């Protein structure tokens, strides 16, 4: 692995972007990026992984007790009832023969909790996925080209849990599940060693879920600076592995996917995002909750499963809430 020049993030980002670019790989009009690796054959193989029929939600709760603190106008979901049982009981709804009902509405940023980053979410020096001009791709009308709605039918396939927190973390934390400390940079070596420890392979078309244990810690100790603060996460140096492995998507249990603080000695902000989303075309998930799944995987020794995680088909959105479901 080439040493990282911690004094020059701009040069390191440019070098990685050039080395690992997938621009043009699926044609000039592509809107799926690495999700192209998730083919029909891969979904058929994934369906065969279901043996016990047990299922796990990998989502946080969507409520006001969430991690957001207002950075970049990101707030926690606000849930409001527009019709209630009280209205029905008092006869205020105007329906005949005693029928009543309840309705509600929710207001939230699309990236405030468990979510996918769409391909229009991050730009690299003014360019979006596949080399498109950012200003012509995402405008005040939304993502005009790679809106998250294009991904809605596709995200079902073989899920693989890499519980790096269990393999490399403190086993005394997280009820024995293990947790990585903030600032822990997960390298390619950590990922491959974790896969070997779990007895799984990772490759083309897979949907990879990385557990660091940070989510479990924040739920035990309070959110603190979970949303935007220090965190374990993927090292910038994993860009080559993320490209070479040809996975369809990757998700973590942290706010920002990559290690924080970022690995440079001068100011840098989410440099791995800048490589993997606009250049590799990688689908990235954040703030997932793998805790129940991880406990089950550790108990039965099986770390692969059918995973479905469709984004909401919100036209022109650059991200989407998701309720990922793992079935074993």
From TrEMBL:
Q: Which GO terms describe its molecular function?
A: hydrolase activity
Enzyme class, spelled out = hydrolase
The Enzyme Commission number assigned here is 3.5.-.-
Keyword Transmembrane, does the record have it? no
Q: Which keywords has UniProt assigned to this entry?
A: Hydrolase
- InterPro entries per UniProt: KFase/CYL, KFase_sf
Q: What is this protein called?
A: Cyclase family protein
Q: Does the keyword Hydrolase apply?
A: yes
What SUPFAM superfamilies does this protein map onto? Putative cyclase
């Amino acid at each position: 692995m080439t040493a990282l020049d911690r004094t020059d993030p701009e040069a390191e980002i440019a070098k990685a972007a050039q080395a690992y670019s997938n621009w043009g790989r699926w044609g000039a009009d592509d809107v799926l990026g690495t999700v192209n690796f998730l083919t029909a054959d891969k979904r058929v193989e994934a369906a065969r992984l279901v043996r016990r029929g047990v299922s796990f939600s990998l989502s946080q709760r969507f409520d006001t007790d969430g991690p957001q603190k207002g950075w970049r106008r990101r707030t926690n979901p606000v849930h409001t009832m527009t019709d209630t049982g009280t209205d029905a009981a008092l006869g205020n709804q105007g329906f005949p023969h005693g029928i009543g009902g309840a309705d509600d509405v929710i207001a939230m940023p699309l990236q405030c909790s468990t979510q996918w980053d769409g391909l229009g979410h991050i730009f690299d020096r003014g360019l979006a996925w596949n080399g498109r001009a950012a200003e012509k791709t995402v405008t005040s009308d939304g993502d005009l080209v790679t809106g998250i709605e294009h991904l809605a039918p596709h995200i079902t396939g073989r899920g693989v849990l890499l519980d790096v927190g269990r393999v490399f973390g403190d086993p005394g934390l997280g009820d024995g599940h293990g947790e990585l400390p903030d600032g822990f940079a997960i390298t390619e070596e950590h990922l491959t060693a974790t896969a070997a420890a779990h007895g799984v392979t990772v490759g083309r078309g897979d949907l990879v879920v990385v557990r660091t244990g940070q989510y479990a810690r924040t739920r035990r100790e309070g959110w603190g600076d979970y949303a935007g603060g220090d965190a374990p996460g993927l090292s910038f140096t994993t860009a080559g592995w993320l490209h070479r492995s040809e996975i369809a998507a990757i998700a973590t249990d942290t706010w920002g996917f990559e290690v924080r603080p970022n690995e440079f000695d001068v100011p840098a902000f989410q440099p791995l995002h800048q490589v993997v989303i606009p250049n590799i075309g990688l689908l990235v998930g954040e703030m997932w909750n793998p805790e129940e799944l991880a406990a089950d995987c550790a108990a039965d020794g099986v770390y692969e499963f059918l995973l479905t995680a469709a984004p909401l088909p919100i036209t022109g959105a650059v991200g989407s809430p998701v309720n990922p479901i793992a079935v074993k």
